[in-house]
Amino acid sequence: MCETSANRSFEGVQSAAAAKSLTKTYGAGDTAVSALRGVTVDFPAGTFTAIMGPSGSGKSTLMHCLAGLDRADGGEVHVGGQEITALPDRELTRVRRDRVGFVFQSFNLVPTLTALRNILLPLDLAGRKADRDLLSTVVRSLGVHDRLHHRPSELSGGQQQRVAIARALVTRPDVLFADEPTGALDSATASTLLSFLRTSCRDLGQTIVMVTHDPLAAAFADRALVLSDGRIVGDIGGPTPDSVLSAMRSLVS
Question: Which residue range or ranges hold the ABC transporter domain (predicted)?
């Protein structure tokens, strides 16, 4: 089908996030569903990975466990070299706040705050000051530098999504998790957004893990993982729309 080593070697590159023998089951007895079946995978720092698979394949569950939004039943999750699987809730919350960035299809902006205050909100909650140089670089690269004093209702959908990405990036997370970030965007805006995500890996050293159903979106990544029935069945280096489509089609052939 495609290259299947989910631990492709990136010599000399530190891991930003990793899973080892990860398992997750929902329900019990006859209704039990195994969402993850012993998944082992590494996400080297400064790389952009797309996670794909049909509905029910486990791609969202994998992302949620890696990000500390859900707890696995077995195995280990590491973020920035720290094992987080068995952390108490308070410490896990701190990891999510300080070491992980999130971008969702729903922008989750606070409607009463300006774009700038939304971007700075995670830092404010953590009692940290913004790196003004990084803030300037991010908002200019995303094209929202002239919209910082507007509230979300005064921004287009694409501008709101870019503000949400800026909010995730200014905390300098070990890894940024993006869940269908282009699902609510038109094709031109989605392409601009994905180009910036790719650039943030190459120029800012940001690590990005993106769940998507779109082969065109996956082609912006350095690699595409393909999941089926809770297992990684493909690891495509330098994905193209055709190689991703071929991998997806093989799952139903």
Answer: 17-252
